[in-house]
Amino acid sequence: MNTLVMWDDALLRYDMGEHPLDPVRVELTMALARELGVLDREGVTLRAPEPASDDVLGTVHDPDYIAVVRAASTGRRLSIMGLGTSDNPTFPGMHDASALIAGATRAAAEAVWLGEADRAVSIAGGLHHAMPARAAGFCVYNDPAVAIARVLELGAERVAYVDIDVHHGDGVQEIFYDDPRVLTVSLHESPRTLFPGTGYPDETGGPGAEGSAVNVALPPGTDDAAWLRAFHAVVPGVLRAFRPQLLFTQCGADTYRHDPLANLWLTVDGQRAAYLALRDLATEVAGGKWVASGGGGYALVECVPRAWTHLLAVVTGEAIDPQTPIPASWQSLAASKRSNNPVPTSMTDGGSGEWTPWVPGQTPDAVDRAIMATRAAAFPFFGLDPHDPRD
Fold first, then answer.
1. Domain 3-382 is found in CATH 3.40.800.20
2. Catalytic residue chosen out of the listed positions 61, 95, 128, 129
3. 76, pLDDT greater than 80
4. pLDDT value at position 153?
């Protein structure tokens, strides 16, 4: 198996300063993956990306918006089109840094679609909130959408996008809401309690693309077992019915139990279980064609490097044993970067990654109600029975 990992230290230049989206989380991820030998595996290729051109960005973004991003990147103080806010402060070189991430994710998807790689990872990508003409949620350019647009341009007829970030994948959904060739599936904390306030079960696709959006809105406090129960009650069924030719997954790590910006309660063990499930689904429904990106995640030392090192391991080959100790050299590096953050010593939080399959009415709690709401809204579009756990 050949796996492409898009990487260059220049990807760390997407730096908004004193801001939750700190590039140190990506830096520490790549350092940990190297320490554990993940990036040295047979068949793994690291490739430096090229920035996406304005024409490429224009496949999903308005030209006027791109021009504003360029202007704001020169140091001009602009507060327009979502820029210049606390969520999306402008910074020198913002356009170039954002275009490089878009170029990385696009190249990953292109390589997999063209057969140059079996799987690919754009760990700095996953900026799923950016809208066609507006920055949002720490995201300037929507690199997953740019990548999916490229695969469609190359002739794909069915692409599935599965978003497991704690926040709704609103930008990708918005961009492809009227396109029946793209299925967007998002599992996220309820929009009643978390940004961006969208992702209700009744958001199911625009005219002519009914059923192309599937949303699972989970209550605060959802833990590993409940999250995995919801995932398996919804995602495999719709993917099997849709039959994608390529699976793109946005793997934000902000579902973590101690993430400062959200309220779900997953461990890195639960996140690892999600990656394994996505790998198996990519093999089953998409001929193995799998592109994975990063996303959110604000427990910069405690979670993100471990979660995404597990992701890199799963994408590139064998999963890492959760009991694996973290090398002392990485612990020292992490402490030097963020001295106030607890530094983990192993690749587990002590979770099991186990879950119990969903059965209608068997667990009449808030998660069960969320599952049923999504199945009732979305499953009929796929010819599936919302009440049959076999679907």
1. yes
2. 129
3. no
4. 98
